[in-house]
Fold this protein.
Amino acid sequence: MTKVGDVLKRRAVEQSKIRVQLNSVRAEEEALLKGGEDTVAWVKEELCIGCDQCTIVCEDDAIELYDTPLASPIMDVDVNRKARILRDPCTGCKICVLACPTDAIIMIDR
Ligand code: SF4
Ligand code: SF4
C-alpha cells in the first residue's frame, strides 16, 4: 500500500521537474522579448482581467489599476479593474509581461 510519505516524496520530485521546465520556458520567453530603456510596457485592455499580478511585480510603481464598467450584462458587478502603465516611471524591465497570466502586456517602442 502506498504511504503518504511516498506520495509526498514523489510530489516533491515532480514539482522540482516542473519548476525546472517552467523556468526554462520563461527564460526562453524573456530572451525573445524586447526590453530596456527604449521600450515601455503596454496593456491590451481587452485581455486584462484586473488580477493585480503586474502591480505586485513592478518595482518601479509604473502600473496602476483603474475601474471600468464590466462588459457583461449578466453579472451584477458595478466595476471591473484594468491595469494601466505609467510611461515615465516604466524602465522597460519587462517583468510584468512575464507575470501577466493573460498575456495582456506587451513591450512597445518608447
Ligand atoms: S497581470 Fe495582466 S491581467 Fe493582471 S492586472 Fe496586470 S495586465 Fe491585467
Ligand atoms: S516593464 Fe518593468 S517597470 Fe515597466 S511596467 Fe513592467 S514591470 Fe514596471
Strands lie at 39-43, 63-69, 79-85, 105-109.
